[in-house]
Design brief:
Elements: E1 2-6, H1 8-12, E2 21-22, E3 25-26, H2 36-45, H3 71-78, H4 87-102, E4 109-118, E5 123-132, H5 141-147, H6 154-177, E6 185-190, H7 200-209, H8 215-224, E7 225-229, H9 239-248, E8 252-258, H10 261-267, H11 279-282, E9 291-294, H12 296-302, H13 312-325, H14 341-357, E10 362-364, H15 373-384, E11 399-402, H16 413-418, E12 420-425
Parallel strand pairs: 5-6, 6-7, 7-8, 8-9, 9-10, 10-11
Antiparallel strand pairs: 1-12, 2-3, 4-5, 4-11
Helix pairs in contact: 2-3, 4-6, 6-7
């Protein structure tokens, strides 16, 4: 399959559009603010402190307490916080926007493709991701969590199924329209519960979407679409049967966000019991998956290049600690207790070589580059181990990197198609594609 050369400069110059009002409300009052500092202050006031994701779920503005904020945050919110907006308003607006998106109507939500690059810096695949029109490259993650809540009312579950299958339809329609993108494998995230053949997503898929496709569209679907099974739910005991059902429909499957068992305990401190895609979980399922993705925390901590280490000073300190003290730095800061960096690197090497032997392409959910001093230190370490793992050399056809030259940016398909061109023939393994 052909790989694509990207106009990286042009793509990096693109930005997410900003929509300031929705249904008569200010977008920022609904958790979709375009200014990170405002979002941080709002999150603090409603008791959801943390990074300014693109959405804040179905929150209640009436619970906002400015006393939770510092003086600067209070000043930021004082003049703009909408005291008339209720929990029901927020919920109704967000559900209506999801419904509009699923029905191909104007919505503040939109799907975009994040490129995946091979070792040569060529685009070989992409992931379909949800974005919101607030100018940022963040996903409205908490909004989606509310939509796919297993305890949600029946009407919300029906909407989620419609919306999830609409994403598959959207991807297929876009690659039909933009033929260049047919060189890529486009993955779409589905949760383990979504895979149940008796569930609403599968029913929506098999009774409405698939019967509507022509034979040519079905062939294109199997060529360019992949299902990425996410890591955030414990698998059903019948997961193998569920995955087989999707494979019989023609979909290839990807195992999302794998992490080594040792790394999971070290890096997911306090939450590793709720992280379900360890390599030991993957082992009995491996034959059902055509490719695997490496969790960003695993990759970022091993290669010392996690996006959380964003400043040059921080990256130098993380590298120094690994070189001099064999220390693993957690993405959120501080050391990982009870584990050495070299042991985590060795765990990754052993697992990756097993995947190569089993001919399973590996997508690393992090920007790993030979010209990055932090990455170079680890890449050379891997080559010196026995047996060696040579990611940018002997084993390069098995590796790809999500983010890469355009990092966290995702693009509407038209923009991506306009800024790529066919370049060389790439090995099938490296594109995370094909069935």
């Amino acid at each position: 399959m052909a790989s694509l050369k990207a106009n990286v400069e042009a793509l990096n110059a693109k930005s997410t559009p900003v929509q300031t009002t929705v249904n008569g409300f200010q977008s920022c009052h609904l958790g979709w603010g375009s200014h990170p500092q405002y979002n941080l202050a709002c999150r603090q006031a409603i008791g959801k402190p943390g990074p300014p994701f693109g959405g804040m779920g179905f929150f209640d503005p009436q619970t906002a307490d400015l006393e939770k904020c510092n003086a600067e945050q209070r000043d930021t919110l004082q003049a703009t916080l909408n005291e008339k907006l209720t929990f029901k308003d927020v919920r109704d607006v967000k559900l209506a926007q999801f419904e509009a998106q699923a029905s191909k109507k104007d919505s503040i939500y939109f799907w975009a493709f994040q490129p995946i690059y091979n070792c040569k810096g060529e685009v070989v695949a992409a992931e379909s991701l949800l974005r919101v029109k607030n100018g940022s490259d963040s996903a409205p993650f908490e909004d989606v969590l509310q939509l796919c809540d297993p305890e949600a009312p029946g009407d919300v579950k029906v909407l989620y199924a419609k919306w999830k299958v609409a994403e598959l339809k959207y991807v297929l329609e876009e690659v039909k329209e933009h033929e260049k993108l047919q060189a890529l494998c486009i993955s779409v995230n589905f949760r383990p519960a979504d895979m149940h053949p008796a569930g609403p997503v599968y029913k929506e898929l098999t009774t409405k979407f698939l019967p509507s496709l022509s034979d040519a569209e079905k062939r294109l679907m199997t060529q360019v679409l992949a299902i990425e099974v996410t890591e955030d739910q414990k698998h059903s005991p019948e997961i193998c049967t569920h995955l087989e059902a999707w494979r019989r429909l023609g979909f290839s499957l990807r195992f999302d966000d794998a992490i080594g068992d040792l790394a999971c305990k070290a890096l997911k401190q306090g939450e590793h019991d709720n992280f379900f895609h360890t390599t030991s979980v993957l082992t009995p399922l491996l034959k059902l998956f055509q490719g695997v993705k490496v969790d960003i925390d695993w990759a970022g901590s091993i290669f010392l290049c996690h996006p959380a280490f964003f400043s040059e000073q921080k990256k130098k300190e993380v590298l120094r600690l690994a070189q001099e003290s064999d220390r693993v730095t957690l993405p959120r800061g501080g050391p990982a207790e009870g584990v050495s960096h070299q042991k985590l690197v060795d765990e990754f090497r052993t697992w990756a070589l097993e995947m190569v032997e089993r001919e399973k392409p590996i997508c690393v959910e992090c920007t790993v580059r030979e010209d990055d001093p932090n990455c170079a230190y680890v890449l050379n370490m891997l080559k010196r181990m026995e047996p060696p793992l040579d990611i940018f050399g002997a084993h390069q056809k098995w590796f790809s990197f999500q983010g890469g030259l355009t990092k966290a940016k995702a693009f509407i398909p038209r923009v991506l198609a306009e800024n790529v061109e066919e370049c060389t023939q790439s090995p099938k393994a490296g594109r995370m594609g094909g069935s």
